[in-house]
Design a protein that fits this description.
The chain has about 550 residues and is of the alpha/beta class. It has 22 helices and 20 strands. Strands 3-2-4-5-7-6 form a six-stranded parallel β-sheet, with helices on both faces. It starts with a strand and ends in a 9-residue tail after the last helix.
């Protein structure tokens, strides 16, 4: 006779799960034994947070929930940051945690924390499995909720006695396709009229535009309408190919190069904008361009974002319908074309600067030179993210993964590990600051043990550089942000990886090429100089163009 844990594994197999990431504990041993005889691979990590980041990245790249496992109490609480990462990022994932028996309390309150309650604000749904008979329906519902718009994390708690309880054979529930509502004809009519009346329309693609299945539809929309577009940081790469309509990426909320295009526009068509991101532009109560919100769900009205028109429904179907209405009817704005050349010229400024320690612009330039079009770069969070968002041109969807929602440090390495597992034939690179890398650096052992091909670039300035920059912007003294680092070359070697230190500005590209040619896990220690770039960004913010007064 099967146990509750056997039934749970069967239900996960029914959902197409092939890997589970995590750190088991005593309360998971029945589940672990059920996994042992299943076709699901257990990917043992060195910290639960990394397991959650990997599961979230699986959801981000595939559209199917990644699954992670932890024990009760401290292990489950280590999932908190990963759950928030997926919740704000809108990436589907399933978190499974253990718990003491619910029918007895032989260890009293030892290690018991109300994880269901703690996960409530961090997930779309959190539920304790109270009986083996409930498992098939609970798992099917969990995957449905995780994948429905807006996607996100779902938490299931499996008590030890429920996992070990014997149960009659209960059939799993067949997977059914998800259907997304379609925008109304009236909403499409309103949007069509406003776009045709505009003199200088501009498209913005946000985080919800980066769903894996939307690439073809959004790329076709831009190609057919010939509308100039820019993107938020998490919308970067949603349109494939090198397009002469791309105006740039909003790396800041105002005063960035692309905001000259925003200031010129009389209409912004915001496709898939999610206000969890750092605002790509700031709306005011009057003046400036009108805004159309086109997305799966209605806009979250904020002080800085309150659109005039909404087109709600499946984004792919909406942009296809609009392209059918607009194709061949829109006049090109020559001013936007000229402005694009000006913006891109500013982005290319100093990209090949020969100073050492190396500058962020040169890092972006060299990484782009070494990565093929389908190569995947996974960023941690730090000062360099601004320059990658601005300067790194993407030609294939989901090839620059960055987090502009929770914007947590420590996610870069686990995210790259997940990408390397999903796409073993593609080049995958993690770019981390020294601060962010050290927050989950123990996963180097996991990457080596799994035999991954992965290059980790550590940008080394011995400081929390992003906060130092903000300190300077706000006029504070440089204080409290510096630290020491280990010898990263020896650190990599201690885990069985290979380490190399960049000692000249011309070293980076050949070292990246050599690392990928050699295979395995490589760490490149890259000294970086943010000082001049900090001054540039401070000057840009202090002398920025006026706030964009969007109606």
């Amino acid at each position: 006779m099967q146990k509750g844990s056997d039934l749970l594994v069967k239900a996960l197999e029914n959902e197409g799960v092939d890997r589970i990431f995590g750190v088991p504990g005593e309360e998971n041993l029945d589940f672990l034994e059920s996994l042992r005889t299943s076709r699901i691979e257990l990917v043992l990590t060195r910290h639960e947070q990394a397991a959650a980041f990997m599961a979230a990245t699986h959801g981000r790249l595939t559209g199917r929930p990644g699954v992670c496992l932890a024990t009760l109490g401290p292990g489950a609480l280590n999932f908190s940051t990963g759950a928030a990462y997926a919740h704000l990022g809108a990436w589907p994932m399933i978190l499974i945690t253990g718990q003491k028996p619910v029918m007895s309390a032989k260890q009293a309150r030892f290690q018991i924390v109300d994880i269901v309650a703690s996960m409530k604000p961090l997930t779309k749904m959190t539920r304790q499995i109270v009986s083996p008979a409930a498992i098939p329906a609970t798992v099917r519902d969990a995957f449905r909720v995780a994948m429905e718009e807006r996607p996100g994390p779902v938490h299931l708690e499996l008590p030890e006695d429920v996992a070990g309880e014997e149960v009659e054979d209960i059939p799993v529930i067949p997977v059914h396709p998800l259907e997304r509502p379609i925008a109304s004809s009236a909403a499409l009519d309103r949007a069509e009229a406003v776009i045709l009346a505009a003199k200088r329309p501009l498209v913005m693609i946000g985080a919800a535009g980066s769903r894996p299945w939307l690439t073809e539809a959004l790329s076709a929309f831009v190609a057919r309408t010939r509308l100039p577009f820019f993107n938020t940081q998490m919308g970067k790469g949603a349109v494939t190919g090198g397009s002469n309509l791309y105006m740039g990426t909003a790396a800041l909320s105002e005063g960035d190069y692309v905001h000259e295009a925003v200031a010129r526009a009389d209409l912004i068509i915001a496709i898939g904008h999610d206000t969890v991101e750092m605002p790509p532009f700031l709306m005011k109560s009057s003046g400036g361009p009108k805004v159309i919100h086109l997305s799966f769900q209605s806009a979250t009205v904020e002080q800085v974002y309150h659109p005039d028109i909404e087109v709600l429904g499946d984004i792919g179907a909406s942009v296809d319908a609009l392209a059918n209405r607009l194709e061949g009817r829109l006049a090109a704005d020559d001013g936007m074309v000229d402005l694009r050349q000006k913006i891109l010229a500013r982005l290319n400024d100093r990209a090949e600067e020969d100073r050492f320690p190396i500058t962020p612009q040169r890092v972006v330039h060299d990484v782009r030179a070494a990565m093929p079009e389908d190569g995947i770069v996974c960023l941690d969070n730090g000062m360099y993210k601004i320059w990658f968002a601005r300067n790194y041109r993407t030609h294939v969807a989901n090839t620059l993964l960055l987090d502009n929602a929770l914007a947590t440090m420590g996610a870069g390495l686990p995210s790259a590990m997940m990408a390397a597992m999903l796409y073993p034939q593609r080049r995958v690179m993690a770019v981390c600051g020294d601060g962010g890398f050290m927050m989950n650096s123990q996963e180097m052992e996991t990457a080596v043990r799994l035999g991954l091909n992965l290059v980790v670039v550590i940008l080394n300035d011995s400081a929390y550089g992003m906060i130092r920059w903000k300190q300077a912007v706000d006029g504070f003294e440089d204080f409290g942000m510096r630290f020491g680092n280990p010898d990263f070359v020896k650190y990599a070697e201690a885990y069985g990886a290979k380490g190399t230190r960049v000692t000249a500005v011309g070293d980076l590209v050949p070292m990246i090429e050599a690392a990928f040619a050699d295979g395995g896990v490589h760490v490149l220690d890259v000294p970086i100089d943010y000082a001049e770039n900090t001054r540039v960004l401070v000057d840009e913010l202090r002398n920025r163009t006026p706030d964009v007064g969007c109606a």
